[in-house]
Amino acid sequence: MSLNDKIIKAHQNNNFSLLVELYQEAAENVSTFQEQNFFRVQAYVYALEVGHYLTPILRRQLVNDGVEE
Q1: Is residue 33 domain-resident?
Q2: How far is CA 64 from CA 6, 15, 27, 34, 54, in A?
Q3: What is the domain range of residue 8?
Q4: What pLDDT digit, counting tens, does each position of 21-33 carry?
Q5: pTM of the complete model
Q6: Closest CA to 44 of 55, 28, 33
Q7: Neighbour-count burial of 1, counting CB atoms closer than 10 A to its CB (0-12 exposed, 13-18 middle, 19+ buried)
Q8: HEC-encoded secondary structure of 7-62
Q9: Mean predicted confidence (pLDDT) in 27-43
Q10: Is residue 28 part of a domain?
């Protein structure tokens, strides 16, 4: 199953914890800074929603990239 299909399925199942991990994986496998930040923001939003352990890591990455204050 492709990463995109996994993301769609996780959305359909409202599996927010899995979405955090899938969006983070997507962020690590794209070619542009803009794409990376898009996927990281998505991961961060869902991480905040569920209190995911990646929340502080994602925030730090976004701050370092100038996306979050």
Answers
A1: yes
A2: 28, 28, 15, 14, 15
A3: 3-64
A4: 999 999 999 999 9
A5: 0.91
A6: 55
A7: exposed
A8: HHHHHHCCCHHHHHHHHHHHHCCCCCHHHHHHHHHHHHHHHHHHCCCCHHHHHHHH
A9: 95
A10: yes
